[in-house]
Amino acid sequence: MANTYQKLVATSFTPQFREAAEIVEEEIPSLASNEVLIKNKYAAVNATDVNITAGRYESDAELPLDLGVEAAGTVVDVGADVSYLSKGDAVITSTLGGGYREYNVERVGNAIKVPEATPEALSIVVSGLTASIALEEVGDMSHDETVLVTAAAGGTGHYAVQLAKIAGNHVIGTCSTDEKVELLNQIGCDRPINYESEEVAEVLSSEYEEGIDLVYESVGGPLFDTCVEALARHGRLLSIGYVSEYQDGPTAVSRERIYTSLIPKSASIRGVFLPHFREHFSAHTKKLMRLQQSGTLEVFVDDAKFEGIESIFDAVEYLHRGENQGKLVVRFPD
């Protein structure tokens, strides 16, 4: 095993990922008794990576700041008191700074044991969890509802589409290309909307006059406003992100306050930040794994090949150009 490894750190606060981040090399640290050493095999690329480099993700962030969040890898060493994991076990981790690095030291309680360290397992444990917990625990998803998913062909959106369909709902999904429309058709989306060729607001007002019962929203900006206006009586909007404003920061708006749109419909907006729902992780992970293993749930990983620490810069930019279908990952060399 190597004595040193490479990782990615932010040395300045800016949403321009390539400007903020640099590759550094350091020694592999010794383990505490309750820690494990993991050789990362895959790291997930997330839209919020630029929020992290901008210093927006945690209010007390300090430089230099380790980057990346979730990763899949193999345990290569364990602390003296570790019994839950052994050398050779495949695990998923999801801690800030634990993703964009070749080796990662984690407390054993932060490592989720999985059958194999694959991109699909990595996708399920964060992107899938976000969709499952948001829809069921926060959004109170029922059946025979009309559900709208924005960025529906993305890493977490394609889970939301399928979970809403499995629950017996009519699902609308927005996307940006005809290729993504094909993906949405493949996973059962009832009404894909390519917003480059159709006006989302026009489709919703003309085809869904009674409104939308539940929205899974990650884009923000004007599309968020459109979703709010389209809510049905007792409609719920789940705000899980606002990727359209990550690069330049949140935009100030001048309009009537949001309660003027919500109260007449008894509607609500509910924010979702996955780390606040750890008590639900185990049950929802098991459910998602079971659905995937039975063939009920399809997990899509983008075909683009990004390998090694140095490829992360290009991968983040690829994602922010909206080119990915499904979850985007970077592979580390064996």
Q: Which key terms come to mind for this protein?
A:
Quinone Oxidoreductase, Chain A, domain 1; 334 residues; 10 helices; Rossmann fold; alpha/beta; six-stranded antiparallel beta sheet; 28% helix
List the helices and strands and how they pair.
Elements lengths: L3 E7 L6 H4 E7 L7 E10 L4 H5 L11 E2 L3 E9 L11 E5 L8 E5 L3 E4 L4 H20 L7 E4 L7 H10 L3 E6 L2 H9 L4 E4 L5 H8 L4 E6 L3 H10 E9 L19 H4 L5 E4 L9 H13 L18 H9 L8 E3 L3
Parallel strand pairs: 9-10, 9-12, 10-11, 12-13, 13-14
Antiparallel strand pairs: 1-2, 1-4, 3-5, 3-7, 3-15, 5-6, 6-8
Helix pairs in contact: 3-4, 3-9, 6-7
Share of residues in strands: 25-35%
Q: Give the C-level CATH assignment of the largest domain.
A: Alpha Beta
Order of helices and strands: EHEEHEEEEEHEHEHEHEHEHEHHE
Provide the helix percentage. Answer: 25-40%
Mean pLDDT: 96
Question: Can you offer a commentary on this structure?
Answer:
The chain is an alpha/beta fold. The chain folds into two domains: 4-117 and 302-331, Alpha-Beta Complex (Quinone Oxidoreductase, Chain A, domain 1); 125-275, Rossmann fold (3-Layer(aba) Sandwich), CATH 3.40.50. It is built from ten helices and 15 strands. It has helices spanning 17-20, 49-53, 119-138, 157-166, 178-186, 200-207, 221-230, 259-262, 281-293, 312-320; strands at 4-10, 21-27, 35-44, 65-66, 70-78, 90-94, 103-107, 111-114, 146-149, 170-175, 191-194, 212-217, 231-239, 268-271, 329-331. Strands 3, 5, 6, 7, 8 and 15 form a six-stranded antiparallel beta sheet that branches. Strand 10, helix 5 and strand 11 (191-194) form a beta-alpha-beta unit. The longest helix has 20 residues, at 119-138.
